[in-house]
Amino acid sequence: MRDIAVFSGSAHPDLAAEICTQLGAALNPVRIQRFANDCLEVQLQANCREHDVFLIQPIVPPVQEHLVELFLMLDAARGASAARITVVMPHYAYARSDKKDAPRISIGGRLMADLLTTAGANRVLAMTLHSPQVHGFFSVPVDQLHALRELAAHFQAHDLSNTVVVSPDLGNAKPASAFARMLGVPVAAGAKQRFADDNVTISAIIGEVAGCDIIVLDDEIAKGSTLIELMDRLRERDARSIRIACTHGLFAGDALRRLGDQPDVEEIVCTNTVPLANGTTHPKLTVLSVAPLLAEAIRRIHNGESVSALFHDA
Fold it and tell me: Which domain of life does the UniProt lineage start with (predicted)?
């Protein structure tokens, strides 16, 4: 069997180190140099020849900077005669650019997928892509994990006798339904319409939420505009309490404070797929680790074992 070589860009070194600890593999050093003309140079500082190479880099702000780092790491690994190169991408920011919903706009999710393949990616390991079609943007094999089991295990410690899982929109209803089945509770969904990045309207809640303890499940939280709007609708329908769960806690700007300071929000739960912006935290925030899940997926890919058991029930 080929040797494994794991490298990380600068996007989330703490997660990369935790993955390698779980994997029992070394996290090899990477030198990233910026020249006077603002161009980057990347050097992988360990042998890659005929190795099974894994490059860990969530695409998080500054997005363009981290993408270029990843392209350069891919090119460096390919030029160093790596046997196979797998991109471990816990968060793919361009997944939100997944359709042409206005004239003369690009589908960034597909373009960046093409560029990753062109740069040298042979395989992608991702987590909770924004929409199902993003998986099909890649021309190389993609293993998409989810954090529903980790989130469900956390909430199973609570009294769920009067709980309803609520999806902010119908597009997220399938994962929300899977999450509700894991918890053994009903599911509801918001009828959402987005007019701009921070202009969202939820006209109705489909399902019964009156007097219930709510767990809102979304794939990611950026500005939090959708959740603020959803919570207004839930209050109008006399929801008793609200907990918020997501995979990718981006919390741009003051989103975490805006959500956490809502008096009926009891808890905000996310995973560590992305680093907390500027070390932001809040007393109501709980961060769950997905490093064991990602490490197990890497181990299975390296050993040629099935990965599907890790995401089969969603």
Answer: Bacteria
